[in-house]
Amino acid sequence: MLVCFATTVRGLEQLLADELIALGASDVHLANAGLEFVASLDDVMRMNLHSRLASRIMIRLAFGGYRQEEDIYQLARGIKWEEWFHVGNNIKVSTSAIACPLKSLDFVTLRVKDAICDDFVERVDARPNVDKANPDMRIYNFLTSETATIYLDTSGDTLFKRGYRRLKLEAPIRENLAFGLIKLSGWIPDRPFYDPMCGSGTLAIEAICYGLNIAPGLNRNFAFEKFIDFDSAKFEEMKTQAKAAINYEQKLQIFASDINRTAVEIARQNFQQIKLDHYVQFSHGDFVKKTAPAEGGVLVTNPPYGVRLDELDRLAEFYPLLSSTLKKEFAGWDCYFFTADLRMPKLMRLKPSRKTPLFNGALECRLFKFEM
After folding, report:
1. pTM for this one?
2. What is the pLDDT of residue 171?
């Protein structure tokens, strides 16, 4: 059994814990933007394939106290790296810290890289190459004021990169955050789902993949596939089971629209590329002039939120119009708005029945629920 750490969006930690427990995790401990747990390597493969909420899943290889960089070097030297990956695999080492007293995190990164190379030179008389752009193996060091932890990544590219979004707008919402919003809304596949400000379609795609039970990792590769002990036959069996579990017969009512015609076209092309376009009904237009696409359902959207003063002024004018549309056209709908503009409910003159704190990167946001 392995001690592991999974990262996620700040605010989704408990949802991720529930998801990973269902996939085999035990002894779970929540942390800021992630959680520690115990699992087998088979469980870790299954989690990478099926997790809709994790950003990255890592295996803890070493943990210990330190006072200087040499202590961290010795901690890394104690790891049998050749038991995890080949000398021919490219590596990248990264370091992050909270309240670390050392002068240079870059020097810590260098010393851990040295430890890995020294271990391989000692054992096989060769050293792995460093590739910062597209490494086979990512090693993460995390330092507190007194302790150092060294992790080996199992995911490769972050898990919110599902492999389906070929075209995107400038600032698309990340896929695991999008699914987190859907999960927090309580939407189930039998209910209509509508994103009226869909951008490149991430929320709608996540809703469809969830509704049809399409494993999010089916169209991508993972770092663990290059591990020494990788069981390719077992992983192929997992993927075969995941494909067999997809329910293409599930009836879905998914609606997506946007005021930006280009965004709608990008979303439409993304859906066509993954052959899911017949599960969604697209439209173009201003939401404040829209009528509800069904008698009742769940509306989840990520509206624009301004930074500059002129943007904030335009939003202050937009919110009353938005509120009027909800009152007139969306009776019977549960409406969720994910925004960093905390003025939204007051300017809409609507009282949210729930407000969930979440982060979009470093930006503090709220998921506001309005029951119409």
Report:
1. 0.95
2. 62
